[in-house]
Write a structure and sequence with these properties.
By secondary structure, the protein is of the alpha+beta class. The chain contains two helices and four strands; from the N terminus they run βαβββα. It has one domain: Glutaredoxin, CATH 3.40.30.10. α1 packs across α2. It binds FE2/S2 (inorganic) cluster. This is NAD(P)H-dependent oxidoreductase subunit E.
C-alpha cells in the first residue's frame, strides 16, 4: 500500500465541467458598474436556463455571482472557465446562446466576446 501524494502531472477530474461567473457589482456612489447594465437579470436568466437544460450540478455547470472582475468597461460581464472566455451581453437571447453553445456544447460565442483591451 502506498500513501504517496499525486504527482503534479496526475490528471484530476474537475468538480464542474464549466463554471460561469457574473459580475454583480454595485457601486453606491453612482459610478458605472455591471449592476447598472442588467447584470442581475442576466445572472438570474442564466441560472434558470442552465437548470432548464439539465446542465446544473456536479460534473456539469455551475453559475456563480462575483464581485467586480475589473473589466467594467465592457459591462455587464461574465467569464467561463476553464477556457477563461469573457463575454458581455445585452439580453436573455445572448445568455441563451452562451448556455446552448458554450456551456452545453463547448463552442465559444465569438460575437459576444469582450475585446482584449477592455479593462476597468
Ligand atoms: S463592475 Fe463589473 S467588472 Fe467591474
Amino acid at each position: 500500500m502506498t500513501n504517496a501524494a499525486p504527482s503534479e502531472t496526475t490528471p484530476v477530474a474537475a468538480y464542474y465541467e464549466r463554471h460561469i461567473f457574473f459580475c454583480l457589482n454595485e457601486r453606491p456612489n453612482g459610478e458605472d458598474c455591471c449592476s447598472l447594465h442588467g447584470a442581475k437579470a442576466g445572472f438570474d436568466h442564466c441560472k434558470r436556463a442552465v437548470q432548464a437544460a439539465g446542465l446544473a450540478g456536479k460534473g456539469q455547470v455551475r453559475v456563480n455571482k462575483a464581485g467586480c472582475l475589473d473589466r467594467c468597461a465592457a459591462a455587464p460581464v461574465c467569464v467561463v472557465y476553464p477556457e477563461g472566455v469573457w463575454y458581455s451581453f445585452i439580453d436573455e437571447s445572448d445568455i441563451d446562446e452562451i448556455v446552448e453553445s458554450h456551456l452545453k456544447n463547448g463552442r465559444i460565442v465569438e460575437r459576444l466576446r469582450i475585446p482584449e483591451h477592455l479593462g476597468r
